[in-house]
């Protein structure tokens, strides 16, 4: 039950860069089943975001490497440099 409470609290949190640019909203997490570590955030992109327009991802949902996350509070903050070089986004 505790896991589901945490999942509900995380759902739809905003994801922004360390420079304050909007990326989108968290939709899910990809977790390594063996280690239990979070590997990626699944983020529904904000098509109005200047950053997203510049990166021009092909999909509406992108995978943001968890290594790009620098802080979590009311929002997820990700390092823009890691985001721009992630192969799941920069195609």
Automatic annotation (TrEMBL):
Pfam families (UniProt xref): PRC
Gene3D superfamilies assigned to the protein according to its UniProt record, in alphabetical order: PRC-barrel domain (2.30.30.240)
Domain of life: Archaea
UniProt xrefs under SUPFAM superfamilies: PRC-barrel domain (SSF50346)
InterPro entries: PRC-brl_dom, PRC_barrel-like_sf
Domain PRC-barrel residue range list: 8-82
Protein name: PRC-barrel domain-containing protein
